[in-house]
Amino acid sequence: MADGGKKPDFTGPAPAEPAAGLAEVAARLVAGLWLVVACAVALFWPSDAGPVVLAAAVLAPAMAAWALAEVYKTQRQTLAGHAALQRALGSRPAEPAQKPAVTTVTDPVLERRLTEVLRALRQNEAALAALAEAGRAEPVLPPPPPAPAATPVDATGQVAGHVAEEEPSLGLDLGETPAGAPMSQAELIRALNFPDHEDDAEGFAALRVALDDPKWRQLLQAAQDILTLLSQDRVYMDDLALDLPRPELWRRFAAGERGRAVAGLGGVRDRTALVLAAERMRKDTIFRDAAHHFLRRFDQMIVAFEPEADDETLVELSGTRSTRAFMILARVAGIFG
User: Fold this and answer.
1) How far apart are CA 143 and CA 140, in angstroms?
2) Considering the entire predicted model, what is its pTM?
3) pLDDT band per the 50, 70, 90 thresholds, residue 12
């Protein structure tokens, strides 16, 4: 299970500090000119005047103008820092009025991995559907040919003068398909993580078993849908840092507790992923319906899964890609308070 252990860098290169404004430049020019003029005046200053008065007359206006320039500089740097912070938190520019219906994934490596996994899922579903249809179909036998009239038969019932031939087999007897063994919790966890790549035989085997089980098929399909929708916003489960929740929190969640009592289950705290999911949940009806469907199916799975799972198994469940998607959507939907 690829974990990554690091957050993706959404900030990009550090922006250059903006140039000084007109007011700041003017304040510094005034301070400099005042010092020049004051020095010239000091040459003709009466000798009986005190040095303190002379210093105050020369330095006070220059220091005031320079302080004003520093205020403008501080304001400029504060605005630049605020813009950089917004960039770091994943703020996005306002969307155009006509937003494309589907955003394509531009990362070639991740796009290829996702395409391979989805293609394999479709092939598995098609193969399972074909097997199920073949098991239900009954062979249609052709009507027997009419018996020839007045054909003599011997005592054994064979046509006289003919050698008995073995009746050819139609090859349609599929036999009974043996019932599969109950799916183990380890297989379900492997299926919920989905295959890592096209050569992940263990992952595809677990996924095939899960899709063949009506109890888990809808959960896997719902998880596949939501992972695909999140990837359209470049939110990939392998890139998200995870705080593994304590097993007792899963047990309390399975018992029906919600809100802050189980808030520790929201182990994915990536600011960008949460903001993008919340925005999509608010604006995209298809995404919202898929998210609620997935949350219901995952909730039902935990209720059935938890009683027979030990603490180590619950920790392994927490690290799957499907569970990370659940953590994001549950936080956005307010399940954790």
Assistant:
1) 9
2) 0.48
3) very low
Q: Residue 234 corresponds to which tokens in the numbers above?
A: 């470049």
Is the pLDDT at 159 greater than 50, yes or no? no
Nearest to 35 by CA among 7, 6, 66: 66
Q: Which of 206, 229, 218 is nearest to 286 (CA)?
A: 229
Residue with tokens 């936080």, as numbered in its chain = 331
For the chain, what is the radius of gyration of the CA atoms? 37
Q: How far apart are CA 257 and CA 262, in angstroms?
A: 7
Residues in the chain: 337
The whole-angstrom separation of Cα 284 and Cα 279 is 8
Binned at pLDDT 50, 70 and 90, residue 239 comes out as very high
Average predicted confidence (pLDDT) for the chain: 73
Q: Which tokens go with 2?
A: 């690829």
**Taking the domains of the chain in order of start, what are their residue ranges?**
22-87, 108-131+184-333
